[in-house]
Amino acid sequence: MYIALLSYVRPLEEVDALINAHRAYLEQQYAAGFFVASGRLEPRTGGVILIREHPRALVTQILEQDPFHQAGVARYELLEFTLSQMLAGFENYL
Length: 94
Description:
Blueprint lengths: L1 E7 L3 H5 L2 H13 L3 E6 L5 E6 L4 H8 L3 H5 L2 E7 L14
């Protein structure tokens, strides 16, 4: 699995101008079965996306489609991890 950490690198006004396009992108990735969960950081400095296991190159390609990435308003850090424990029922999201 992956955790994508987004950090805003531009003012919030520029981020907010792209928020609807970013949300549409998220919905597409949920519908395609790539994303498990997402949300913004508090304080509002970026966000987090939990991503199902796929080849890293594919995950990177998917993240590059995000309007935040394409406009250069967010920087991404991609963390890959192997599950060793999980809440019962979470396997439905793998």
